[in-house]
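so the lab meeting is tmrw and i was supposed to have these ready like two days ago... anyway. pasting both below. for each one the top line is the aa sequence and the line under it is the structure tokens. i havent really looked at them closely yet so no promises
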Amino acid sequence: MDQLRRVKTTIPGKHPNYGGVKRKRGDDELNWRKKSIFYELPYWAKIELKHNLDVMHIEKNICDSLLGTLMGDPHKSKDTDNARRDLQNLGIRSELHLYEDGNKLMKPAAEYTFSEANRRKFCRFVRSVKFPDGFAANLWKNVAQNDSRIVGLKSHDCHVIMQRLLPVGCRSLVNKTISSTIIELCTFFNQLCARTVNVTDMVKAQDQLVIILCKLERIFPPAFFDIMIHLVLHLPEEAILGGPVFMRWMYPFERYLKRLKDYVRNAAKPEGSISEGYVVDEALTFCSRYFDDIETRFNRPDRNDDGIHRTRRLFVFESQCKPMGKQSQVYVEKNMRDRAEFYILNNSPEIETYLNQHKQELQLRGCLNPDKAHRNEFADWFFEKIYAMNRVHAPEVTHELLSLASKSNVFVSSYPACIVNGVRFVTYARDVRLKTQNSGVSVPGTENEMFYGQLQEILEFSYLNDFSVVLFKCKWFRCDSRRMVTENNITSINITSESYKDDQFILASQAQQVFYVEDPSRGPNWRVVQHVNHRSIWDITEDGMSDIDLLQDNSSSNFTLFVDLGNLPQINLQRNDGDVILILQPFTAVSQHVYETVSFLNDDDEEDVSEEDDETVEESADEETDEGNDAVDTEEDDDDHSYHTSDSD
């Protein structure tokens, strides 16, 4: 702040007051000369968070640099020829220095880049991923046909790759030391982009990020560490001061810019087209507020809206859904129907008194296997109990309780898909034919353990008085320590082992959606579990929450960020597969590197910069700004293009 008070108010640029040239800086002036006009506000100097770093673009740029370097992309890789000359000039990592082979200049392949075979494996891995409905775009279209490059990634594509796919895909393709460091960086972004950001997590991440960057410096060349890598260090502090990033990042603004660009009909007059389109949109919005009998943007249901269900007194009758697809009547065998009905009764908290009463009667009878007898006999006992109470007009017996005790119809309705609580579920038989994946389910256990499976059937059991219960019949995977492994916040599960074959049902309202991606590091029978937290779905009911989007993780505490600098041994960064890259120009034709020709500009050097050089720098900066503006992601305001829009996508 003392330096800020020393800054003088000057006129920038080549002003006529200075003879049409740039003003020379005095000896008492600092190397930065502009004081923001916001400091004229009386409260500005007291604001702790004066600048807001955009996490969206920082994450995208880091993903481009990281993925481009791993893939060896000639346009985005930081492992360039000049980066190797940097190593030679600095006298470090001699195994990666350029060397001559006759009249050719060769570049050794680095350990932090994929080989050609691994590059194709990673592309096939990205191509195979299928996301849930509305989660992300189809990434298969960004993979080149020969499985050699990944191109055309938008900001949200980089967001998904950075937090979901890169930690899984790189584990078996690069050295474990390198992959663990990349996973740690991706875990931090998972923490940062969560709905609920814990201040304690951000304080720890602020210290651990320093170690992560130190580990990255021991792996990647110095050219990798641009300003975007440095800005990561400031993100935890900004999260502590400014709150969760979904309230501050650029996704909604970029989408709105896309809407404004869609107003352009005359390319010669874009500003006028945007103005006219905005006025028309405002007029239509105003008029639509007076329309009650037609569909407008204010009363249009969401894509996965499950409608309005009637309120029930019994919890199990609240398990409803909006069916999708063709309805079919299915005859359910008695054994399966008995298991389904017992599950419905056992998950009805309103009849817990009757459940305990029946268990006590079994104990008094001296039953050898009370749990099995309770499972087989409770439905009939409950039926007789409720009907006996109904004959004496007991006030406890309601229409819902009587219907529940009367058992279900022998024929049930089956659907291929449904929407439950704003989430779309699809049976596995239909899901394999789609480009989306909506068949993964999970439920928490009694001891907070998680059970994972695939949705096999959607069944609606009908009861008396037009009551019904929707059940999901699932294939549950075995979740013991041998078949489910969690490492670096990545949970892998073996899908060949099935468990709970006699207990396959859950209520539709109990299901939580997950999706599975292949695990290249463990084999074809292993899948990585990815949890989904859908946007517009919150555990609390407060106004305005439905406008927040792109939220895919619930809490920063769900991810454990632990790094240890001592775990990074000294590794040889040259790949031992003998792969080298031929550089076309011979080494003798290359001029001396920038370190030998251009020194860093200090305060005195800047005064010697000529007027001609200033013009060149300004023109170059203008060109870069124009290119950057053209490359800014303007994603769709609606879900029609940047997200899966239908099952037929």
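ok protien two:
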Amino acid sequence: MLKRPFEVVGEPALPLPTPILMGKTGFLLPLLVVVLLPAQGLTLSADSPNNITTDQLALLSLKSHVTNDARNLLATNWSTTTSVCNWIGVTCGSRLHRVTALNLSYMGLTGTIEPHLGNLSFLAWLDISHNNFHGSLPIELANMRQLKHLRFGSNSFSGEIPSWFGSLTKLKALSLHDNKLTGVIPSTLWNLSKLEELDLSNNHLEGTLSLEIRNLISLEFFFLNGNLYIGGEIPWVISNMTSLKHIDFSDNSFTGRIPIPPPSAHWFSVSMNNLVGEIPSSVCNWSSLQGLNLAENNLGGTIPDCFGNLSSSLSHIDVKKNKLHGPIPENFAKGCSLTSFYFSNNQLEGSLPRSLGNCKDLILLDVGNNNLNDTFPIWLGHMDQLQILLLRSNRFHGNVDKYFDEVTAPLFPRLRVIDLSHNEFSGYLPTNFFKNLYLIKEEFEKKDEPEYVIDASIDGYVYYIGKVSFTIKGLETDVPQRTTWTGIDFSGNQFFGEIPEALGELQPLLFLNLSHNSLTGSIPSSLSDLTELESLDLSWNRLEGRIPAQLKNLTFLAVLNLSHNYLVGPIPQGRQFDTFTNDSYIGNLGLCGLPLSTSCSNNEELKPTLTNEIFTEEFSWKTAMLMGYGCGVVLGMSMGYIVFTIKKPWWFVRLIERSEQKYVQGKLQRSKGEL
């Protein structure tokens, strides 16, 4: 986060000469007046208008190198008809009226930085971040020796980091993040002993970190994340840099063991590296930490028991995608301040600790892809801040619906994303649970623009929950977390019964996956009310009937999978349905119409529902069919005896498959004839 601009007062004005000869040599006074005062006047003239003119010319030169001023801010404001100190983004000192601060951040500017900018010799604050400046940084900027804050982040600068940055000895903040800078970090940076913030993140830097980083005795914020190629071991001297508060070395190629952060650290992230070994026992002494991210390394061993005790200070723990095993610690403290808890993709065992219920501010809980064995954590329903619950791919089991039938108070009032996929849950889909989620519609209707979910706010820096993975088209896909984003994934369980109509009330829902269960009945037409829906997967169930034509109203639907059910009739045509392929419907032998090769009759397309007369006739036909089943039981038992006696059942399996296909096709033909 940016601090307020620091204003440099500037050099004092030259004192007037003292008339030391006045008492004895009065005759010289007129001469002194004639000679000295004009000279002094010239000095003042050069010091004020001429030098502010130098600043003006430097800024106009910068303006001339701006090729795109999207908002016309400089074009309409930076004019010689007004004082440079009144130009937008320009601040002048209060005494000498020289330019001391230039803030052009977030102005949508495109262009290059030209050498004349280095003539702003009184400049202490320079911020052109979040624009589209490109090219290299001219060496003339080294003339700005008064600079204390330099922010060039979020542009497109390329080339190596100039070594002349090391000559700006007054620098307190150097921010070059999110550019296209390459090469190694110049050793001259390690001599900037007054530096408090160094942000080189999200570039293409490489090499290793020198032990000389210990010279940065004032450094509080150190960001190298997202460079990919900075490697080697993280220098041990980092433990002695007692001013450091935020350390983010994630998404690089660091090796070795986890370094010990200094006792002053509030945020420590070394995720997405190649670190090995166990989480050190000294973690129990990291009592000042508020955020700890060790995710996506090769860490093994168990999670130290003291993690639970640290929860009174920690707001963020992320150890996902490692090789940790054993149980999750049980002792999460009362007054636990955790807001996010990422333990997914490890080999953790046991149950979900009930002491997590002490973490009343928890927003996200992710323990997916482990070996946890427990029932549905209904006790989490009383945590009124919980928004994201991910339990997928464990051994959770039991009837989920009964928990919601036994409780009258609303549970999970703010939950927006829930993933129970690939567990052993059973029973009916929890209708009361879906009705509770209807409360999110009120928040959705209040949102003008999507906002990202805040994970932690520490020392003025706001960290967001960037992405969580969700199964779309059978693949785990990372999706950004916004407050208007909602998803439900109950796939890969043993749920049965019909799809509740209440699901249609969850208007903000973006993803719905109920595949690979034993759901029956028809697809409820109320799903057409999910106007924001982007992905719908109902495949591998026992759904029957027709595809509701109302689903054409889902204009944002990009993924549809209804395959491997018992659906019949014409596929709706138009809008999003014109974009889906055969894969969306495969395994439903009774479907017809594009994109399938099986065409529908005109009657089918004009009459999507059965009349009462047809229903009566079909009911009589079904009654006769049920009577035939009685005889079929006897025949089936006889055939089963033959099959298992001969021990070559494949011919029988193929016979049954052909019979089933003929049955469905015959039923479809009869329906056509009746229509």
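from a quick look at the 2nd one: Confidence is low (pLDDT under 50) at residues 1-49, 605-675. The chain has nine helices and 43 strands. will dig more after coffe
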